[in-house]
Amino acid sequence: MAKSHSLALMEPAYLSVITLLIIVMACVELCDAVTVVDVYRLVQYDLAGVPFGSRLAALNHHAGSSLFSSSSAAGAAVDLSRTVLILPVRELNLTFIKEYIGEEKPLGGLLLLLPQVFNSQNNASSKDESGHDSSKATIKEVLLELERLLIHANIHYPVYFGFEDDHVNAVLADVKKNDATGQLATATTGGYKLVVAAPEPKKIASPSIANIQGWLPGMRADGDSSRLPTIAVVASYDTFGAAPALSVGSDSNGSGVVALLEIARLFSILYSSPKTRGRYNLLFALTSGGPYNYNGTHKWLRSLDQRLRETIDYTICLNSIGSSGDELWLHVSKPPDNVYIKQIFEGISSVSEELGLKVQLKHKKINISNPRVAWEHEQFSRLRVTAATLSELSAAPDFLESTGGLLDSREFVDEASISRSVKLVAESLARHIYGQEGKGIDIFAGGSSLSVNPSYIRSWLQFLSTTPRVAPFLSKNDPLIMALKKELEDHTAEVSVQHEVLDGAFTFYDATSGRLHIYQVASVTFDLLLLLVLGSYLITLFTFLVVTTRGLDDLISIFRRPTSRKVKTA
Question: What sign does the dihedral 177-182-184-190 (CA atoms) show?
């Protein structure tokens, strides 16, 4: 009888516990992430032991939308050491950002939202924004300044880039609404929490760079092509930018790589027959380490046999030739009256007039004692090899800048300009090789088997525009390197890949991307209120069930102090 009585008392308790578990499970469901998005971390590197970029990767703080509190006097700055700022680039105030970073003020983290037009993986969104040319130009200017600021700063908190979308924009709108009340999101006020679970970034040990070269041997009567003069066509294929995982460099220098591959394809057709094979060897090289003073070009040139280097009449370097303008620059280090420089410029100028292009010669003497190498041809000039760089840029960009960063996307590259540059270089080289200067012969005429192939250019440009190419993050057998090697093998002979270690002055760190989980969290006040309501409910439920099943006397007996029993001693 006593046993059944105790079981009856326990049944209400079991029911209460089950009810509590159901409510807790419901609350857990409410804590699921509102959205999960891909984010890309600001580059982290050391230069000669000096730290640059974002030094942290893990993120776990509440979201905010402003450097200032609306309730503070005169917009005074507030403590943001536990806040992740969400700032759309299109609304960015660069002056405030520069001051905040320059003064090294504390911040929990920074999430910078880029317009979809800069997303290389989302062509549809890019087309949707294609009509806003003026706004895109403004955003490009802001992004250029922002990237310049971030890559040269030492930032002690996580900095990530993401892309605007409906989910993120909705979260940002809620965060702005909450910030407008003058209360920052905290554990006591609730709001949104941003979480990126990432380990501490680690150094990349001995980052490698890979140079790829291929030959088209010329025709010599005795069959020994090694005694023929050589013309080299070179392009650097790697990139550098504020976010390594977004540095696709469609123009710098994807356009140069695409042009080199198409020139190699065109000349492979000519050189495939002994009747049309020229009396020049053609050397094609895709070099790495371009952003780092063309470190790969330097090591590749040093590895070439001296006798081979001495056979090079001249080298044409291709750099950033994909803009829609009608003006190109031929940058040289040797004096303009140098025989080979005159030959290169006159040949290119002659063809450029036929194509409606204007090519200007720009001479800049190099300083051997200065380690800074502004253009790729300068590495050749340092070894007394005549070379020139063809580019849309009138002046070399500053160190680590404009080398395939955030704003260098497919949207801003013109395929027709690349095709025209290919025709310009290929035609001028062919007329020189076959002695057809000044004869008005169009060797690569449109509609012929030797015409420039727009489809080929488009496919390679699309591939490179969706492939980040920051050298330290590419493995020796990276699919990109293997794809470039295979393509050269299809059009040239004796293709080889040279692996070298990047200049020791640079140290890079991993963790270049992650997944951002955005949670909507309730305030502590809400949690306490919920706990009070649950406790009251459970007590009421327990009391009701005991009274209705066993009576009021049993309820009172539960809380009554049991009578003590005295132990009888013998």
Answer: negative
